[in-house]
Amino acid sequence: MVNKGGDKNRLPVPVVLDTDPGIDDAVALMLALASPGEIDLVGISTTGGNIGRQGVFENAHRLLQLFGRQNDFPVGFGWGEEKDTPAASHIHGADGMGETGLPLAGEPEKIPSVELLAQLVREHSGKLVMVAVGPLTNVAALLREYPDCKKNIARLVIMGGAVKMSGNVTPAAEANIYKDPQAAAEVFSSGLPLQLVPLDATLKALFPPDRLVQFESLRSLQADFFRRLLRFHFRASRLALGVDGSYLHDALAVASLLAPQLLQFEPVHCVVETKGEWTRGMTLCDFRYGSKKRLQPNIEVAVGADGEKFIDLLCQRILIFLEKFEQ
Ligand SMILES: [Ca+2]
C-alpha cells in the first residue's frame, strides 16, 4: 500500500489479525507489533486451527502478555463448533507454540471473535484491513451474520491455498482452507476485496537456521522465546518436511502490508472445492490465459514472492523489536 497523503491511504492502517497461534502466527504477530508505522493493530480474533479454540485463544494472550501488550486491544474467542481436523502438533508442538511453555496470567474474558470483528469493522468503517492466517471460520460467520460489514471492510488478506502446486495437508489442499472449506468458499465468493497469499508464495518465505545467529546475543525473555520457537520449528520441519529452515507462511501475509512489492500478485478467478472426494479444500484458479472462457477475476493471488528480501525485512524489524526488551 502506498501512502499518497490521501485520507484513505493514511498510515498506519487499522488491522485485525484473525489467527490460530501457531508458530508462524506468533512470528506474524511479532512482525505486526514491530511495525507501528504501517500497522495499527486494533484487535486479534482467534480461530481454531493449529490447535483447538481454547488453546489458540490462550496462546494469543500468552504472546500479548509476553510483549506487554495485553491491555492494548481485545482478543476474540473462536466462533462455531470445534472442527474435527488433523492436528498440526508435528509442526507446531502439542501447545501450538513450539512447547515454549509461556505462562498465562489470569483467565481472560471470552468475547466471541465474530462479535469482535463486527465491532472493529464498525469502529474503523471503510478502513479496516483484515489479515486472516487461520481457517476462515470467523470471517465467513461475520459475513453471514453481519452482511452490512462487507461494504465497510477495506481489504481481506488471506494466508491459504495452493494455486499452481500441491497442497500441504493433501495433494490438493493447504491446511487453512482444508480445515473449513465451506467458510473459505463463502469468503472467496463474497465480493470483498481479497488478496490470497498461498503456498506458492509462502514456500519462498523460508527462515534459514543461520539467520538466527544475529539474535543470539539478545538477553531477554522475549528474545529467548523467539529463539526457542524457531529452533523447535527447525527440528519439526526437518523431521516432517525434510526442509532445512522454518516456513513463516503467516508472517509473509503480514509483510504484504509492509512491502507489497515482495509478492507477485495476479488477479484471477478462484473457487474453493467443498465436496471433492480427493480435492476437498482445493483452491482452483482460472489461469486460462488468452481464452475467451477465462472467468472474471474475484481475487488477487500471490503466485510468487521474494523470499530473501522478506527474510531481510523480517529480521530487521524483529531485531529492533526485541532490542527494546534488553535487560
Ligand atoms: Ca496460522
Topology of helices and strands:
Elements: E1 13-19, H1 23-33, E2 39-46, H2 53-66, E3 75-77, H3 89-92, E4 111-112, H4 113-123, E5 128-132, H5 137-145, E6 153-159, H6 175-179, H7 181-188, E7 194-197, H8 199-202, E8 206-207, H9 221-241, E9 246-247, H10 249-258, E10 263-268, E11 270-272, E12 283-285, E13 299-305, H11 307-323
Parallel strand pairs: 1-2, 1-5, 2-3, 3-4, 5-6, 6-7, 7-13
Antiparallel strand pairs: 8-9, 10-13, 11-12
Helix pairs in contact: 1-10, 4-5, 5-7
The structure holds calcium ion (CA).
Tell me briefly what this model is.
This protein is of the alpha/beta class. It is 35% helix and 18% strand.
According to CATH, the fold-level topology is: Inosine-uridine Nucleoside N-ribohydrolase, Chain A
> What is the number of helical segments per DSSP (H or I, 4+ residues)?
11
CATH level-two architecture = Alpha-Beta Complex
Q: β content, as a range?
A: 15-25%
Instruction: Report, as a whole number of angstroms, the end-to-end distance.
Output: 36 Å
